[in-house]
Design a protein that fits this description.
Layout: E1 10-23, E2 41-53, E3 56-60, H1 66-71, H2 80-85, E4 96-98, H3 104-107, E5 119-123, H4 124-133, H5 138-142, H6 148-159, E6 163-166, E7 173-177, E8 180-184, E9 193-199, E10 202-206, H7 214-219, H8 230-244, E11 249-251, H9 258-261, E12 264-266, E13 269-271
Parallel strand pairs: 3-4, 4-5, 5-6, 10-11
Antiparallel strand pairs: 1-2, 1-13, 2-3, 7-8, 8-9, 9-10, 12-13
């Protein structure tokens, strides 16, 4: 397929909630300012990422259900049907979900698709950690990281025959379909996936939880919640430079300022490209 034949996609951010009580060391490695005894509380937002292409509707991450939103004290929650409906879509119109990683705010909402399960992509290392590695440790079980319910939801995708396990090492790129690729970006999570989408405005790097905020990008400062290694979290900035060198740009996964940077389409819906 020639470059002229590669389809371009539209990308939308659908904000489904926000928090206001996490300290800055969650967002910046060693805190901001570093090692300060007092760390300010910072707001963060939660998004579904809709990728619209020729005859396809893809979500990066599945968000969470109303029950999970309440359990995690999410404010301003909007459910899938409400947000997708503002773009003339419903859950049944989603044919593919790419899970950046199986934390609650990215996986839990997969149950919304029980009646019309889409194809689901997740990295094999993230899936193995979620089902096996993380459950070995008493502390992680005690803090529900992951919870038994989330493990069951991941297994349900497999039982439906819809699970696609992505392979590759940290930094490897895998094409899901022409014009749409995933990059393994360890740091926050073993086997975390970022997505690179070809759009009319250039390639867009959807960072998910490899980069939380625009502040991380501007300062080259990695996120605080790292579960693999600090150098993994730092590597993502070089991956982003590869995309920006091609005329593209990166979008962090949890920045509450995103609505100020992109056109509002409907309430809670913003056009990225």
């Amino acid at each position: 397929m020639s470059e002229q034949d590669v389809p371009t996609y539209e990308v939308y951010a659908l904000q489904y909630g926000y928090h206001t009580f996490y300290p800055s060391y969650m967002f910046f490695w060693m805190g901001n300012p570093p090692l300060a005894g007092e760390q300010s509380l910072m707001p963060n937002a939660y998004y579904l990422w809709l990728i619209k292409g020729p005859d396809t509707n893809i979500l990066l991450d599945a968000g969470c259900t109303p029950e999970a939103a309440q359990a995690h004290q999410l404010e301003g929650y909007a459910d899938h049907e409400t947000l997708l409906g503002r773009l003339g879509l419903s859950a049944k119109d989603i044919d593919t979900v790419i899970l950046s990683h199986p934390d609650w705010d990215h996986l839990d909402g997969i149950s919304v698709f029980d009646e019309s399960m889409p194809e689901v992509y997740v990295h094999e290392a993230a899936y193995a950690w979620h089902l096996q590695v993380g459950r070995r440790y008493e502390l992680l079980r005690a803090v529900n990281m992951p919870s038994k319910e989330e493990v069951d939801k991941a297994l349900k995708v497999m039982d439906a025959g819809k699970l696609n396990l992505v392979k590759g090492e940290h930094g490897d790129t895998v094409e899901i379909r022409p014009g749409l690729s995933v990059i393994r970006t360890d740091g926050h999570y073993q086997g975390h996936l970022a997505v690179v989408v070809e759009t009319a405005e250039g390639p867009v790097f959807l960072a998910a939880d490899s980069v939380y905020l625009y502040g991380n990008l501007e300062l080259g400062w990695p996120i605080g919640l790292v579960r693999t290694s600090l150098t993994d979290a730092l590597d993502v900035f070089d991956m982003i430079k590869d995309v920006t060198a091609k005329g593209g740009f990166a979008v962090p996964g949890h920045d509450p300022q995103l609505p100020e940077k992109f056109p509002k389409v409907e309430e809670g819906v913003f056009r990225i490209a």
